[in-house]
Design brief:
By secondary structure, the chain is mainly alpha-helical. The chain has helices spanning 4-11, 23-34, 54-61, 80-90, 96-109, 111-129, 138-150, 154-170, 174-180; strands spanning 45-47, 65-67.
Length: 190
């Protein structure tokens, strides 16, 4: 029911597109397919950027899994050249600057949620990619677990993301806003 499939079929007509339920499924299916020996094709995964860090995206790229340069596929409709092409195609007028202002204002309103969702995603990624070293005594287990937990720095991650979003808002950086702003309903602003 998402927009992903029809958009990707339009953007990539020379590829066979298969939709799956979630980004996690895309990642797992792509990795699994590409591990099959004697296959005649290569799978490429295309996921929403969501709240992934550059490091996460680089690791995924090594597995043939890519993301767009916007937070979610729906944000493609917010790229300025797309809006201009749509306006020209429909022979209508539209105040693009007004759209940009509305989006930045909405990001400012949703800032707390966006930052919190980002930090939650970072924590989940840490749990998925890291592990507690094997301890041979209760004390070692406790020590390794504490070390594992200490790598999660909620205050720092929160502060860094908040600073990044505030900078985007202060600079009215529309392109960066649609790159990091996760909200499937944003295209309604247009």
């Amino acid at each position: 029911e998402s927009l992903d499939l029809p958009i990707y079929e339009t953007l990539f007509p020379d590829y066979t597109i298969r939709g799956v339920r979630s980004c996690k499924d895309v990642i797992n299916y792509t990795k699994a397919f590409n591990k099959i020996s004697n296959r005649n094709a290569t799978a490429y995964g295309l996921i929403d950027r969501d709240f992934r860090t550059v490091e996460e995206l680089n690791c995924l790229r090594n597995e043939n899994i890519y993301s767009l340069e916007v937070a979610e596929v729906e944000n493609l409709f917010l790229i300025e050249c797309f809006i201009r092409a749509l306006i020209a195609y429909k022979n209508e007028s539209c105040d693009i600057e007004k759209i940009k202002i509305k989006l930045i204002k909405k990001l400012d309103q949703d800032k707390e949620q966006q930052v919190s969702n980002y930090v939650s995603s970072r924590i989940n990624y840490h749990f998925k990619e890291s592990h507690v070293r094997k301890g041979n005594t209760k004390e070692e287990i406790s020590k390794y677990f504490d070390s594992f937990k200490d790598e999660i720095n909620i205050e720092q991650w929160y502060s860094e993301r908040l600073d990044k979003i505030n900078k985007i808002i202060d600079n009215e950086d529309y392109e960066k806003a649609i790159m990091i702003y996760n909200n499937k309903g944003l295209h309604g602003i247009v």
